[in-house]
């Protein structure tokens, strides 16, 4: 393991521990052909630290599923990060001040897996067959890097810019709603702030899940029963500040709320 990758991991780790954003880490990671693998190596250093401290891994998040955001960062595929049990917020539960650095919210569809996904190459049918149910969700993304000054290597290293995630409480089977055609509306205290649809997530949230299942099998950490998969944003991300209350409604799936503690 290169000293530079350890330095990048330490910068992000200390930023999290001290709630003090750090400078970008992409220069430490480097820009060669293997920069993506190097960025995931940095992510893994800190994942292993968290696991050693007793955090429980309960799933994965998929990032960069919007074509517009991919273009902005100059990439042609999504990325992934780890979801730990202590990142999960109940529907409407208040998010304490300072829980997430530079918080932003996005509405997503969460899939709960109930069969192992261990193939080298998965199909949409594999994902449908392995999914127990879907839930409406809000991801509260955050960045340990100052001013969201990120490129691909920065966000991957920083656990795909993950913060917290809110899951709805009413499970819905995949055959009970249109995962591609469903409309999404997110409001902040009644004001519309984000609109989208299932198709905004890589054309099909199930296609995003196929990508993730393949990636996790390749790296030797396949998705397992009980895993939560946050499939990616259905509409534009919105900055969140103290006192904000967001409600995301997804057609056929229901709604979910994220409430931030007042200042």
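Sequence proposed for the structure above (263 residues):
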């Amino acid at each position: 393991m290169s000293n530079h990758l350890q330095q990048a991991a330490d910068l992000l780790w200390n930023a999290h521990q001290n709630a003090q954003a750090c400078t970008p880490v992409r220069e430490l990671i480097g820009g060669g052909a293997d920069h993506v693998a190097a960025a995931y190596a940095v992510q893994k250093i800190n994942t292993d630290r968290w696991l050693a401290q007793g955090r429980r891994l309960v799933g994965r998040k998929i990032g960069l599923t919007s074509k517009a955001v991919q273009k902005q960062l100059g990439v042609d595929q999504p990325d992934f990060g780890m979801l730990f049990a202590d990142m999960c917020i109940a529907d409407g539960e208040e998010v304490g001040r300072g829980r997430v650095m530079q918080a932003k919210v996005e509405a997503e569809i969460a899939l709960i897996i109930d069969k192992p996904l261990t193939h080298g190459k998965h199909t949409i049918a594999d994902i449908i067959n392995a999914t127990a149910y879907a839930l409406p969700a809000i991801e509260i993304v955050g960045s340990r890097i100052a001013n969201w000054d990120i490129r691909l290597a920065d966000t991957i290293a920083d656990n795909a810019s993950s913060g917290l995630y809110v899951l709805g409480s009413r499970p819905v089977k995949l055959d009970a709603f249109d995962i591609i055609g469903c409309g999404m509306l997110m409001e902040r205290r009644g004001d519309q702030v984000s609109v989208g649809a299932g198709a905004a997530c890589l054309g099909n949230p199930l296609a995003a899940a196929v990508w993730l299942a393949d990636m996790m099998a390749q790296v030797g950490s396949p998705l397992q029963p009980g895993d939560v998969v946050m499939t990616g944003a259905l509409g534009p991300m919105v900055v969140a500040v103290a006192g904000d209350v967001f409600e995301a409604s997804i057609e056929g799936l229901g709604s979910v709320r994220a409430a931030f503690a007042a200042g």
